[in-house]
Amino acid sequence: MLTHLDSQGRANMVDVSDKALTVREAVAEARVRMRPQTLQMIVEGEHPKGDVFAVARIAGIQAAKKTADLIPLCHPLMLSSVKVELTAEGDDAVRIRARCKLSGQTGVEMEALTAASVAALTIYDMCKAVDRGMIIESVRLLEKLGGKSGHYKAGDEQ
C-alpha cells in the first residue's frame, strides 16, 4: 500500500522502487483574473517589465523541475517534457495550462500543479504594480494519464 506514513505513523517518502516504469502525464491549470486594462497591456506587449507570458512560461517550467525541492515528500523526477501555455480568456483573465510528462515510477501531478501555480504567481508578481487586485483561482488537476491508478479526467468523477 502506498502511504506517506510509516508503521509508527510518521511521515516519510513513499517507496516506489517496486513500481513499473510507465509513461505518465498530467495536465493542470490555473487562472488569473485581472482588470481588463492589465490584460490588454500584457497582450499588446506594453508591460514595462517585458513579455509577461514568456517570463511566466519559463517560471512554470523551472518550478516543475524543482517540485521536489518545494513540496515535502515529493520524489525528484527526471521530466521528459514540460509545456506551459498561457492564453487570454475574455477581457479579464489569463488561463494557464501546464503539461508534464515522463517515463517513471510515480506520477507528475504535483509537477503540473506547481508549474501552473508558479506561472500564475509570476504573472501576479510582474503585474502587481499596476493591478494589486488580481485573483489567482481555479488551480486544479485537469487530467492524469498512466500509472497504476489509470486515467483521471476532471469532471468524470461521477
Automatic annotation (TrEMBL):
Single Gene Ontology MF annotation: cyclic pyranopterin monophosphate synthase activity
Keywords: Lyase, Molybdenum cofactor biosynthesis
Top-level taxon of the source organism: Bacteria
Pfam families (alphabetical): MoaC
SUPFAM superfamilies xref list: Molybdenum cofactor biosynthesis protein C, MoaC (SSF55040)
Top enzyme category: lyase
Enzyme Commission code(s) on record: 4.6.1.17
Catalysed reactions, as listed in the record: (8S)-3',8-cyclo-7,8-dihydroguanosine 5'-triphosphate = cyclic pyranopterin phosphate + diphosphate
UniProt binding sites for substrate: 73-75, 110-111
Pathway: Cofactor biosynthesis; molybdopterin biosynthesis
Record-linked InterPro entries: MoaC (IPR023045), MoaC_bact/euk (IPR047594), MoaC_sf (IPR036522), MoCo_biosynth_MoaA/MoaC (IPR050105), Mopterin_CF_biosynth-C_dom (IPR002820)
Domain Molybdopterin cofactor biosynthesis C (MoaC): 13-147
Active site: 125
PANTHER family: CYCLIC PYRANOPTERIN MONOPHOSPHATE SYNTHASE (PTHR22960:SF29), MOLYBDOPTERIN COFACTOR SYNTHESIS PROTEIN A (PTHR22960)
Stated role: Catalyzes the conversion of (8S)-3',8-cyclo-7,8-dihydroguanosine 5'-triphosphate to cyclic pyranopterin monophosphate (cPMP).
Subunit structure: Homohexamer; trimer of dimers.
Family, per entry: Belongs to the MoaC family.
Protein name: Cyclic pyranopterin monophosphate synthase
